[in-house]
Amino acid sequence: MSNTQLSTNQIAAYNKDGYIVIKGFCSRPEAEKLYQTALQDDAMKKNALDLNDQTGKKTKLSLWFTPGDNVFGYLTRSEKMVTSVASLLDSTAPVCHFHSKLMQKEPKVGGAWEWHQDYGYWYKNQFMFPDQLISVMIALTPANKSNGGLQVIKGSHKLGRVNHGFSGEQVGADMVMVENALKTMELVYCELEPGDALIFHSNLLHRSEANLSDHPRWSIISCYSSQSNLAYSETSTSWKTPVKIVPDNAILEWATSETAAVDFLVKENDPALKETGWENKVKTV
To answer: 256: how many CB neighbours lie within 10 A of its CB?
Structure first.
């Protein structure tokens, strides 16, 4: 089976569990090129955001909206990414790219991500349909229990949106509902090797521990929406612009432009991090 076409079993598993893992979605040379580019990219470093977790440890990410003509943009726009996403979104409208982010968990100091749903953030962007939002994580380094790999609550996307409040500088899910979900559904550690993909629903509850190991955990997460999914409080435009698909071989073979041309998120402009008043009523600890 080609990587550009998900099987009926994979689609069924996604709908049932809220996520699927695809081993070797990107080849090792592709993952290595992405990782080495990320390490050396000055624009990524200059535009990295630090978000404190509850303990004060920092989670670092660089987030951009428009996928460019660089290796990260070619990954986001690749046929295998867009075709896979299109088969899982609850819409026949064109696939659009909301944003991508380079997640950087350094050894010993990389902070935790608290329990949350992506739609807990994106609800504040006023996207209408969570079933038309999806995330694809590509591991650039090994991700496991020891270095703060992702944990998910299997099937938790069926809960619908859970209330979210602030947890440190992050937005965290109501822990009363999370604790009930953990009593009801299975906790799964999604251990990945470089090039593996984790594709998950916008309402799937997930978290990650701090990286207390001697090894980094880096990944790229590309988030997509259907063009039919209106966002009434989002100032970027990529979320309503159909992705210009490129062949999979672009990642390794095509010439690239500077990342500096990409539009990065500034923390102060993120609606998800702004107070609305109801966050303080949510138990996130």
So the answer is: 16
